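Final report, closing paragraph on structural work. Over the funding period we assembled a curated collection of sequence-structure pairs, and we close with a single example.
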Amino acid sequence: MLLEAVQETIPASQLLVFAVKDGWEPLCTFLDRPVPDSPFPRTNDRQEFWDIVNANT
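Its predicted structure, as stored:
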């Protein structure tokens, strides 16, 4: 399907198939960045999102 088509098109070294449940490690490894000391954000709360967005404006 779509994922398979993407995987066939994009070189593996340039593609990260990322599951949020895996946390910082695969993302930071792929980006060659250090893993943060803070926990990976695991919420998907609409109000929390807007509170964060509005705090940065």
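The radius of gyration is 15 Å. The chain has one domain: 2-55. We thank the funder for supporting this effort.
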